[in-house]
Write a structure and sequence with these properties.
The complex is a heterodimer of chains A (329) and B (564).
Chain A (H helix, E strand, L loop, with lengths): L7 H6 L18 H13 L3 E5 L3 H6 L11 E3 L5 H14 L5 E7 L1 H5 L2 H9 L4 E7 L39 H6 L5 E6 L3 H13 L4 E6 L3 H4 L6 H11 L5 E4 L2 E5 L8 H6 L12 H21 L26
Parallel strand pairs in A: 1-2, 1-3, 3-4, 4-6, 5-6
Antiparallel strand pairs in A: 5-7, 7-8
Helix pairs in contact in A: 2-8, 4-6
Chain B lengths: L28 E5 L5 H5 L6 H9 L3 H9 L5 H7 L3 H5 L2 H4 L5 H15 L14 E5 L3 H12 L3 E5 L8 H4 L8 H12 L4 E4 L10 H7 L3 E3 L5 E2 L15 H11 L7 E6 L2 H12 L4 E5 L19 H9 L3 E3 L2 E9 L2 E14 L5 E5 L5 E4 L2 E5 L2 E2 L6 H4 L12 E4 L2 E3 L10 H20 L49 H10 L11 H5 L5 E3 L10 E3 L9 H5 L5 E5 L2
The chains are: A alpha/beta (329), B alpha/beta (564).
The structure holds flavin-adenine dinucleotide (FAD), thiamine diphosphate (TPP), iron/sulfur cluster (3 copies) and magnesium ion (MG).
Chain lengths: 329, 564
């Protein structure tokens, strides 16, 4: 067993990174959402105030009287995070304080129930970074389909069976809706490319005004994959084209992570039980699988994701490791 | 009292209070650091751990890299040039693109050490330390003596010849092993305190096994195989017959070699190939190499391939040596006692009725090849003088894996054991014998088994970028004359770059993946290296055992083990 020169609790205090969310939180083993929130808060640093909607992130980090948060944090309702964040921002402004306000919510709290508050927040131009942790369903209440659940995915309210092959409706194109607000900066990110995620958090914080980040966050429970495969699943999402990593400024695409070698969407789907029925031996299943493949190809065409050649920031190069931890920045 | 309106505080909590709750109790499996053996390390007969020295060079610590290298192999400048690189055939990187050019880095470090005058990291043994004997100062004997010193013994090294080096000096041509390199490494070894070199001492003539055992705490025999295998064609032997190994030795000693217009070399091993190349350099128009086998890697079975190193065969072909595969000399055409040609036939080694492979010539395929000479280079055998009791009539000196020859404290290794046939294996034999002798006399553990192995399935290829292997430069054929080395070797830049291609199989490369990706911050980073060689430590109070870190560790250094 490893001999550590100093007690672990002392070593923990000397880590070369800021801790926004402490361990001891109750998220599931291998939770993608907690990983995402950990990475976002680390990159954002200590000078923030967080408004957090109801959902897994809120519930697992705050088993009263415990809290895992090490930054000022307030629990809003499920539907009004953006409104609460707007209020905090206005109050800080009135006091001439410059802390950045972060609004955190799940996809249910963003695509669906919190949407009008978010739209209002952007329209009023509040200086808030709104982060949506997208695990593609209402997870905290037991995996109900949301406006973000992809077509074909099985949830408890879009089960796969004789009549239907999981969800019938498309995943809402939330980024386009956000972009339609004449948005200064909106981007997508994922836990599979932490360096890219950090870069986008910093960029969003720099912008004076509303910014939006959609972080693809696999959920081992809801998606039906082993907790050890969270990052692998997220990576396959990007490499297949189903999860495009893009940046928009004022609605225009200003950055994409090119895909060096697109992987078949089936590789991504096969890794998750919520898509298992798509591999049944039936014409309907085959058609739905092709549908998802077509959606991925559409993303690649729409955002120009095909890499002209290998480059350092494409889907293969962006996670390259170097001896000595250059990755952590 | 202020009259400001009171706000109900709701639930408040101390920052980070959740740490009081130890999620480690959820765990059924725990991640652990396991330094698994890199395949290159496992494959190296000399016992080198390329992963270790590639990592050090990648960190720009060349001297420490060399020290890690010579911990196992004292002659890296030699092996970096002549070893068939077993390590590279096993390298995991070949699954990704191409194997790491380990031998180039080995050679670079070997040369760098000579250029910089680095001393072996070996402490001198105590003046009264017991002394062991090594007979034969070839790679096997040199390695035995070196490792005995490392283990705290003094060593006495005997050789019949005036100089140490064995076949590396007497027969490997200088165009692929310059004497400056050999001399540099051998002299550095011989001048180690506690080592005594006694040249001009022929075992079996000047002294015998009894003498050795009387004066030493243990004996290692590394006499090699010095006698040409007997050769004749149906009883006929040309009057002016020269043997291949002798010709090579003469060329190396005196720079002289008979000049022929057309010459047939019979064989298929290193001696035949080197001799053919030397004859070509001496101006022969046609040098035929007649072998009953196929070219390396092209045989119908491994036993059907020339035993010479593939790289040497390829270079011989480039230089115009004509290799007649699956052929044999059937008859000598003599004019008087002088050879004027050979009759060759198609020939293969085929099993006879009892299953033994025997050379089989095919009738009706005879062809006459006009030549001025035919030179056998069909292998060498042991010289049994003084070894009769140990050999018991066998053609080789049988030993166990450690080199124990089954007699008192006598060990043996290198070519004479009938298993080894390369410089690298000889070095490994010497090393293992020294460790085994040490373990036996001191009653300690011999050496740890090399397991588990970090195979390709332990590697997460997502985290590595394709990167082409360095292209070694070789002198164009027209410039390959004389004794000058034909491969100039890698530049420092190339060697560093190549070290950076290593995947670090089975050993932490400090990439920070586990530190970055653990959702529970259960991986902490230490400013100093820890006992297991990494800078990371698991905080089992919080680790939930999800296994994410193990899966995303690029090099297989993290393994999940059951808690119960
Ligand atoms: C032409 C040729 C090319 C080769 N090329 C390669 C190559 O490219 N790569 C490779 O890995 N291997 C190569 N080999 C094989 C390699 O050289 C041998 O496997 C290796 O040298 C064996 O080492 P050793 O210590 O067992 O024996 P040797 O190198 O043969 O050394 C034995 C030593 O013992 C001494 N000795 C012998 N008898 C006595 C005695 N009675 N008393 C005292 N001293 C004695 C000898 O003088 C000699 O110094 C080649 C061999 C030949 C012949
Ligand atoms: C107004 C209201 N309706 C319903 C709920 C119950 N509820 C709590 S969390 C949750 C699901 C949250 O889903 P999402 O926003 O996607 O976050 P996740 O848990 O998936 O991270 C629901 C439906 C609630 N708290 N408030
Ligand atoms: S990649 Fe490196 S550690 Fe792995 S087998 Fe090759 S040289 Fe050895
Ligand atoms: S990722 Fe973290 S929680 Fe999961 S096994 Fe590794 S150390 Fe434990
Ligand atoms: S993930 Fe990286 S830092 Fe962690 S143990 Fe593996 S090689 Fe070392
Ligand atoms: Mg959700």
């Amino acid at each position: 067993m490893t001999a550590v020169p100093i007690p672990l609790s002392d070593l923990r205090r000397r880590q070369p990174r800021f801790t926004g969310i402490s361990p001891g939180h109750r998220a599931c083993q291998g939770c993608g959402e907690l990983l995402a929130a950990r990475l976002v808060t680390e990159a954002a640093g200590p000078d923030v105030v967080v408004a957090n909607a109801t959902g897994c992130l809120e519930v697992t980090t705050t088993n009263w009287p415990d809290s895992a948060w090490r930054v000022p944090w307030i629990h809003s309702l499920f539907e009004n995070t953006a409104a609460v964040a707007s209020g905090i921002e206005a109050a800080l402004k009135a006091q001439s304080r410059s802390s950045k306000v972060l609004a955190f919510a799940g996809d249910g709290g963003t695509f669906d129930i919190g949407f009008q508050a978010l739209s209002g927040m952007i329209e009023r131009g509040h200086n808030v970074l709104y982060v949506c942790y997208d695990n593609e369903a209402y997870m905290n209440t037991g995996v109900q389909r949301s406006g973000s659940t992809p077509v074909g995915a099985a949830t408890t309210t879009s089960p796969a069976g004789k009549e239907r092959l999981g969800k019938r409706h498309l995943k809402k194109d939330i980024l386009s809706i956000i972009a339609a607000h004449y948005m200064p900066y909106a981007a997508t990110a994922t836990v599979a490319y932490p360096a890219d995620l950090r870069h986008k958090v910093r960029r969003a914080i720099e912008v004076e005004g509303p910014t939006f980040l959609l972080v693809h966050s696999p959920c081992p429970q809801g998606w039906g994959h082993d907790g050890s495969r969270t990052v692998e699943v997220a990576r396959l999402g990007v490499q297949s084209g189903l999860v495009p990593l893009i940046e928009l400024e004022r609605g225009a695409v200003t950055g994409v992570m090119p895909i060096r070698e697109p992987r078949p969407v089936a590789d991504y789907l096969k890794a998750q039980a919520r898509f298992r029925h798509l591999f049944a031996d039936s014409a309907e299943a085959a058609r739905e699988l092709q549908h998802l493949q077509a959606l991925a190809e559409h993303n690649i065409e729409r955002y120009g994701l095909s890499a002209p050649g290998p480059e350092a920031h494409d889907s293969e190069g962006a996670d390259t490791v170097r001896r000595g931890g250059n990755q952590w920045a | 009292m202020s009259n400001k309106p009171r706000i109900t505080p709701g639930g408040v909590a101390q920052a980070g209070a959740a740490m009081a709750y130890h999620t480690g109790s959820w765990r059924t499996q725990r991640p652990t650091h396991v330094h698994a053996i890199a395949p290159c390390h496992h494959a190296c007969p000399a016992g080198e751990d390329p992963q270790a020295y590639l990592a050090l060079l990648d960190e720009d610590r060349p001297r420490e890299a060399w020290e890690a290298l010579v911990a196992a192999n004292p002659l890296p400048g030699v092996t970096g040039r002549v070893c068939p690189h077993f390590c590279e055939s096993a390298c995991n990187r070949s699954e990704l693109d191409e194997a790491v050019a380990i031998h180039s880095v080995e050679r670079f470090l070997g040369d760098e050490a000579l250029a910089q005058g680095w001393a072996y990291p070996v402490d001198p043994p105590a003046a009264d330390a017991p002394i062991v004997a090594a007979v034969g100062a070839g790679p096997a004997g040199l390695s035995f003596a070196y490792h005995a010193l490392q283990l705290g013994w003094r060593a006495r090294l005997f050789d019949a010849l005036p100089e140490a080096g064995g076949v590396c000096r007497s027969a490997i041509p200088t165009y692929r092993l310059p004497r400056t390199v050999l001399d540099g490494e051998v002299e550095r070894l011989l001048s180690l305190p506690g080592l005594e070199f006694q040249p001009h001492m022929r075992f079996g003539l000047d002294f015998d096994l009894q003498d050795l055992l009387q004066d030493h705490a243990g004996v290692f025999l590394g006499l090699g195989t010095q006698r040409p295998h007997p050769w004749d064609i149906g009883g006929a032997i040309p009057a002016d017959l020269h043997n291949g190994l002798d010709l090579l030795k003469e060329w190396l000693d005196h720079g002289s070699i008979p000049s022929y217009r057309r010459v047939a070399v019979v064989g298929g091993g290193n001696t035949s190939v080197d001799l053919a190349r030397v004859l070509k350099r001496a101006g022969a128009e046609h040098v035929y190499l007649v072998t009953h086998a196929a070219l390396p890697n092209q045989g119908e079975s491994p036993g059907d391939e020339m035993p010479a190193l593939a790289r040497e065969v390829a270079q011989a072909l480039e230089e115009g040596v004509e290799i007649l595969t699956h052929k044999g000399v059937h008859r000598l055409l003599l004019q008087g006692e002088r050879v004027v040609g050979v009759e060759i036939t198609h020939m293969k080694k085929l099993p006879d009725a009892s299953g033994h492979a025997v050379r089989t010539a095919f009738e009706g395929t005879e062809t006459v090849l006009p030549v001025d000479a035919v030179i056998p280079a069909v292998g060498e055998v042991i010289d049994p003088t003084g070894l009769e009791a140990l050999l018991n009539g066998a053609p080789y000196l049988k030993t166990d894996q450690d080199g124990f020859a089954g007699h008192a404290l006598v060990y043996a290794g290198g070519d004479m054991n009938g298993r080894s046939g390369t410089v690298t294996e000889a070095i490994g034999d010497g090393r293992r014998a020294a460790m085994a002798l040490h373990a036996r006399v001191r009653d300690v553990e011999a050496y740890a088994p090399l397991s588990p192995i970090a195979g390709w399935e332990q590697i997460n290829p997502a985290y590595y970028e394709p990167s082409p292997r360095i292209q070694e430069t070789v002198l164009p054929v027209a410039k390959r004359t004389g004794c000058a080395e034909i491969e100039p070797g890698p530049s420092a830049h190339q060697a560093h770059r190549e070290a950076g291609r290593c995947l670090s199989c089975g050993m932490c490369l400090a990439c920070d993946n586990c530190f970055t990706l653990c959702p529970d911050q259960a991986v902490l980073k230490s400013p100093e290296n820890l006992e297991d060689g990494s800078r990371y430590v698991f905080d089992y109070d919080y680790c939930k055992g999800c296994g994410l870190c193990a899966r995303e560790c690029p090099c297989g250094f993290i393994q999940m083990i059951d808690e119960y």
